[in-house]
Amino acid sequence: MEATMEENQENVIPGENSAAKIQERLLKRHQARIEDAERRKEAKESQVVAEEQGEYFSSAFNRERAGIEELLSGCSGADRALVTQRLEEATAKTAQLQKFLNDSMMFLTQYDLRQAQAALQQLQTSLAETREEALPKKKFAFRSRTKAADKVPAPPSSDTPSSDTGTPVDTGSTSVDGMIVSEQCGFSNMDGVSLTKTAEEIQKRDVLLTHLTNCKVRLFGSPSTLHLKHIDSCEILCGPVSSSVFVDHCKNSTLAFPCQQLRTHNTTDTQVYLHVTSRAIIEDCQGVSFAPFSWSYPTLEEDFSVSGLDQGRNNWSQVDDFNWLAAGTPSPNWTVIPEELRKTDWDSDFKRKSHVLSN
Questions:
Q1: Which pTM was predicted?
Q2: Phi/psi-derived region of residue 211, left when phi > 0, alpha when psi is between -120 and 50, beta in every other case
Q3: Domain of 187?
Q4: Best CA proximity match to 98, nearest among 228, 204, 245, 240
Q5: pLDDT class of 1 with cuts at 50, 70, 90
Q6: Do 114 and 154 share a structural domain?
Q7: What's the Cα-to-Cα distance from 233 to each of 88, 132, 230, 270, rounded to whole Å?
Q8: 354 with 158: CB under 8 angstroms?
Q9: Which SMART domains match (predicted)?
């Protein structure tokens, strides 16, 4: 009798353990299903949010674009004063629309981004054409450097080059490839010189550097936009740019600047030391390499404050190549500069060259 009871106990205990294990497995499976359902729910909610953001962007963008187009169409037949007022308003609204696009890039699909950029480009072209038709084109003006130039190291001879060495650009407004560049200043058609602009000269203005060869350029301060076009074998350093930097037809050069957005076209064998708060974009480029912005000067922190850029947000290595759409495969058109090859001493060559020129 006692033996039989012991056998029953031995049979009961394993059964209870087995039931407990089965219950534990069922609980784990149930918990896994709950977690999986939560993940699917979160993914669906994220997708809905992204779709809602995209729909809001499209609606707001098209509404603002229509308003600008209406302003431009109202310039036809109007008197000069009214045309000037409407063009100024359209220019300001176009700049705001560009900023809205820059701020929305993180959640837009690449297709929607390209569509919006094409629409904005067309709008800027229409703005330039309307301005050219309605108002006489302003001519370039020559202006000597201000006394503020003494605040930064710069060769005196580079500030007021003669007509056979180049032209300092300083105009009220002009058009660069269909894009309005207002209150523009900069340098053009120069070879083998060191050039400097002070914060007082470029602060909140649009800066244009074009047709420069073998030049070293230092731009202190915070410009509104920076346009680089037809640059060959140059070193160009700029303080924080509050909105966009546009680079076109640049080769064998070194560039450094913080900005909100970078658009680079037709550029080869160029190094870019970058601080950018959105994502850099390249198109029709080869041999472009990137590293974090590393140039420094005494008033850099103040200029960052003026620009409004977020110093804690730098997407320098996040580059979208519009000629390379193969998902999961890196673009062959750009690379990251290895740390051991990155430039850190920016001013020694510039000072040496400035000294030679001044003598």
A1: 0.55
A2: left
A3: 147-358
A4: 245
A5: very low
A6: no
A7: 36, 33, 10, 9
A8: yes
A9: CARP
